[in-house]
Amino acid sequence: MAPTHVLRCCQRGLAWIPVIFIALVVCWSYYAYVVELCLFTIPDVGEKIVYLLFFHVSFIMFVWSYWKTIFTSPANPSKEFCLPKAEKERYEKEERPESQQEILWRAATSLPLYTRTGAGAIRYCDRCQVIKPDRCHHCSACDMCVLKMDHHCPWVNNCVGFSNYKFFILFLAYSLVYCLFIAATVLQYFIKFWTLCRRKSAENCPKNELPDNHAKFHVLFLFFVAAMFCISILSLFSYHLWLVGKNRSTIEAFRAPVFRTGSDKNGFSLGFRKNIAQVFGDQKKYWLIPVFTSQGDGLTFPTRLVNADAEQATVTLHPEPNKSAAEVPVSPLSESQNRLLSNNQHANNIDDHLANNTLKSAESETITISMESES
């Protein structure tokens, strides 16, 4: 027991190494830009002020969003997704998977669940002992079920999910702005120092050239580091912007969610604007600020009406006698109407599922009794 606990503590400690590395790089970049470049290298006072002003704005937003991404705890399923004590004991004692699923189906009658496993069963986490809400997955690194889990990021030592996905997107955005700004403003001094490095002494330099001092090494490495991080962050940021526009998580991009009608990679897509609002919220003035504004509670998510789940109700319109079916206008349901009808239909489908299982078991018992009586 003790060695396992010690090993777990060591793993948690080692997990902070990437975060410490990023923090050290950021601190060095601050010193190299503010002190070595702006104070010791740039001769023009006006240029210094403009550079320092925009640098600190991007630096503050970058650090703020990074901090929120790291220290925002992942959201977990609520207690309503836990099995009642009696059902939990029955589930643990039951050895047959069919009987276990029957217990889960009964417990799921009052839960808004629309996704299934690949085999069409209720998604249940044996580790956390909870019925998984839609888009919820178990993170082995965090050892918990995370609502709308996207991925576990070692660079923030945290699980990126419903509670901090907006912060993660802003972290990528402001880190990209931070690196781009440094690379763009340092470029001219990088070129001057690069040519200066080929000379042995500052005496051979023209009068307009920069002096040969220790600042040149910081400026040279600052440009290389900023350009390197800029390229890597740009690809990752572009990918996650594409995911936000499609309303998918990284997990769903590789493995499409399964509904009763089958897998559907666009099952949660509501259109580009609504997909953006799902992550950033309705009020655009808060989109660029690292404060939580995402829609919903992380437990339930609206699904699209096109190619809808079989559990979601469909409305059949009866045309008037004098009108053909093509002439009857069809208006789409609102999200609230769709969810209300879906919950009612969801309960009915679960009851039908349980009734079918009971009917099948009763038929098998009848056949067995008849064969025994005949023999």
Structural description of this entry:
By secondary structure, the protein is mainly alpha-helical. Among the domains are: 5-74 and 161-203 and 210-263, no CATH class; 79-156, no CATH class. Helices cover 54% and strands 5% of the residues. It has 10 helices and 8 strands. The chain has helices at 2-14, 17-39, 45-71, 85-93, 97-107, 165-196, 215-246, 250-254, 272-280, 335-374, and strands spanning 124-125, 130-131, 137-139, 144-146, 151-153, 158-160, 258-259, 262-263. The strands form 4 sheets. The protein has a two-stranded antiparallel ribbon with strand order 1-2. It has a two-stranded antiparallel sheet with strand order 3-4. It has a two-stranded antiparallel sheet with strand order 5-6. Strand 1 (124-125) and strand 2 (130-131) form a beta hairpin. Helix 2 (17-39) packs antiparallel against helix 3 (45-71). The radius of gyration is 29 Å and the shape is elongated. The relative contact order is 0.10. The model is unreliable at 306-344 and 358-375 (pLDDT under 50).
